[in-house]
Amino acid sequence: MTKVGIVGCGMVGGATANALVLRGAASEIVLVDRNRERAEAEEQDVLHATPFARPAHLHAGDYPDLAGARIVVLAAGVAQRPGETRLQLLDRNAAVFGEVVPAVLRHAADAILLVATNPVDLMTLIALRVSGLPPDRVIGSGTILDTARFRTLLGEHFGVSPQSVHAYVLGEHGDSEVLGWSSARIGTLSLDRFADSIGEPLDARAREAIDDGVRRAAYRIIRGKGATWFGIAAGLARIVEAIAGDERAVLTVSAWSPDLEGVPAMCFSLPRILGRDGIRHTLLPDLDAGERQALARSAETLLSAGGARWLP
Prior knowledge:
alpha/beta; globular; six-stranded parallel sheet; about 40% helix
């Protein structure tokens, strides 16, 4: 039985509660928002879906109601505006976390913090510093959604299920993210070998289209509907599920990464093994020289965008 708190009941917070219910990832969900009426409305809306999904106890509450939560999803903050980069959100959302994180830990000191607020890598770093928790218990959603987009688009190109595609997006959840082409596999085959085996080329134009589809997806969605919430909510629910079930699943999430073979220390996404106590191990995929340089640049982008101010 897993109790999960969600702080911030905007589009992402509400959709995450719904995804948790649909996946059966939590037995109890507490919704906290500075607008209590909004939290209560989300609670009722999601509660009415439980007959079609999995049973769960939902209630709107305040920080004391988070007591006993194993995982607290931090979705509080201001939303990304059309045309605004995730990094431009930093100062506004850092102030929010300065209030929210201590309030959470006063009542749920043993919880794992799961950060959804953008810019998620820098907000994960801020949550780590403000909380004082060990790095394995402060996890950002990172590139879990970008990785899903990468696998989906590769699957569409080759006509295979994305569940059979093993590929990762690394680094920043943002413009400098790194698509790991060289380590990507379909089944056991590299992309080039798979392309040859089925007679479906993966030329430069196709790679560029896939890269653009992954890297620019959020901007297109925000331009069309104002914000993104369904995809990231599913990703957050998957992370909760992996932790609650002690799955030891490998997921690309953001967390503190010490200096890795020339890549500066920073919070960014790498494949990590998630279990009951949070992050168990961090993996560094095989990267070619260009990808390794791009990963270093991604970390440097985060440092120059404000991360240096929050380094331990």
